[in-house]
Amino acid sequence: MRDVSIIGIGQTEVAEHWDRSLRHLAGDAVLAAMQNAGVETADALYVGNMLSGLLTGQEHLGALIADFVGLRGIEAVKVEAACGSGAAALRLGYAAVAGGLHDVVIVAGVEKMTDTVNAETTTGLVMAADADYESIHGLTFVSINALLMRRYMHEYGVGHADFAPFSVNAHRNAVGNPYAMFRRPITVEQFGRARMISDPINLLDSSGIGDGAAAVVLVPASMAKEYTNGRAVRILASSMATDAVAVHDRPDPLWLSAVEASAFKAYQQAGVGPRDIDLFELHDAFTIMSALSLEASGFAERGRGVWLAEAGEITREGRIPICTMGGLKARGHPVGATGIYQIVEVVQQLRGKAGVNQIGNARLGMAQNIGGSGATVITHILEAEA
Amino acid sequence: MSIPRHWRLQNQRYSMVGEVCNACGAKLFPPRDVCPECSKPAYEPYRFSGNGKVYSYSTVYQAPSGYEAFVPYTVALVKLDEGPLVSAQLTDVDGEEVEIGMPVEMVTRKLREEGEDGLIVYGYKFRRLLREEAA
Ligand SMILES: [Zn+2]
Predict the structure, then answer these.
(1) In angstroms, rounded to a whole number, what is the distance separating the alpha carbons of residues B8 and A286?
(2) N or C: which end of chain B has fewer CB within 10 A?
(3) Kind of pairing between the strands at A196-198 and A75-79
(4) For a pLDDT cut of 70, what percent of chain A falls above it?
(5) Could you tell me the CATH number of the domain that includes residue B133?
(6) Listed residue (A370, A368, A373, A363) closest to A81, CA to CA
(7) pLDDT digit string (tens) for B1-10?
(8) Nearest CA in chain A to B28
(9) What is the ipTM for the molecules in this complex?
């Protein structure tokens, strides 16, 4: 196995890009990452995407995007793991470079979500759940998370307002990120008053749906010095774990066992523990997922995730800053692209290029991308190279 | 949404037929042929009573295609008396009066509006238990 480094990053603003098609968005991110890395070609392209078939009638994104960015002929394929598609694609790219199959690999994530009306997008997102035993009963993706949130509030005696710090933190951090979808702060009062979607989850518990694409360029760490454009960042750990797709098939729904398995495998690979992590880009699709992820990843005791947030420990000044560029909540959640946005943001932090959002002395960053309500979990730990 | 896809689930949708593991006795719904408790084969059909308690619930205000006419409707995780959790809608009940722990029983109802294929899908929902059994 070879060590793997990220030498280039690229991203588009998360927004309603009515003037840009899926291939243009992907192309913008890939070309920006290639320029940032200082590479003119690549051996392979892996594309994370969830919904292109349903929402835009386009599958076969590997070949489509490789050709579109001038890389016709290379190995290229789409990777799908619901909202975890982006990091799942990165994991394949990592394996290809680490295993010696390829030297220069581009991994992109792209999603085009705003060409369709709400009900169709809602139908698309619930494809991450169990079609025969969840979706057919009218469960939406939001309502599956709402079932977890209601039970969490019941078992641990917390109120809806106790989740406010997650959204307030995400919006505060998005203000300084020019690529974020919602660059304005919100108050606790606004959080409490937001429109209900599937109670207890309201609009400000939920990540923003938008169009977007992000990309990274990987090479063996031994080759990273040949590229001088950006400071390289080492991938110290890459791990994936799975759980039952349907929440009802899990013996303990409030414990995300695939988060735990994925995070602790990653800690072991990297030879570190939760206390060594300087920032954590977690999968805050809903506020409840932030709490459950912090707990199963070892940052808070069971049932104490909301209190970590309440104590201010998740802010840029806190013990474990999360969503440092806005997170899914406020940077936006173009589902299949999200996992790569998280990686791009950790690289920005570790390079010291996060602008006003810079975390001081950031050396180790963790990114965790979740497919569905916890069924596929991919965790990466990155380290700034000296 | 094709007709065979729903037809082959009729025993589950209408009668809540799952499976029981002959190796460890775990009762499984939905049926899955391999026991998640002990990883042994589990093919023996088992018909659930349809009784259970609300484990969690949520009222949906933004529905997917095919469910818009039901909004707002209440979905739940129901803990069946035999063990498994099941996802379903609650029916004949106002979302306001539902609470965690409420005893419920299975009934058969229309699950979704008629689709483009003219198909109406029926299956289980749960309502508040009408007669509390002495137990
Ligand atoms: Zn068994």
Answers:
(1) 35
(2) C
(3) unpaired
(4) 99
(5) 2.40.50.840
(6) A370
(7) 468 888 899 9
(8) A249
(9) 0.95
Same domain for B60 and B16, yes or no, is no
Distance from the B24 Cα atom to the nearest Cα atom in chain A, whole angstroms:
16
Token pair 């280039």 in the structure block, residue: A8
For A199, half-sphere exposure in the C-beta direction (CA atoms, 13 angstrom radius) is 12
Instruction: Give the CATH number of domain A4-117+209-233.
Output: 3.40.47.10
Please tell me the distance between residue B85's alpha carbon and the centre of ligand 1 in angstroms.
16
CATH class of A137-181+236-381: alpha beta
- What residues of chain A have any CB closer than 8 angstroms to a CB in chain B? 118-120, 122-123, 126, 130, 132-140, 142-144, 146-148, 150-151, 154, 196-201, 244, 246-249, 253
Residue B132 in tokens: 């509390």
pLDDT band, residue B135 (cuts 50/70/90): very low
Q: Domain range spanning residue B37?
A: 1-48
8 A C-beta contact, residue A97 and residue A1: no
Q: A154: distance to nearest CA of chain B, Å?
A: 8
Q: What is this structure's pTM? A: 0.97
The two structure tokens encoding residue B54: 């609300």
* Pair B63, B127 in one domain: yes
| B64 and B88 housed in the same domain | yes
CA distances from A91 to A6, A22, A99, A200, A369 (A): 13, 22, 12, 34, 11
Specify whether A83 is catalytic.
Answer: yes
All residues of chain B having their beta carbon less than 8 Å from the beta carbon of residue A118 are 62
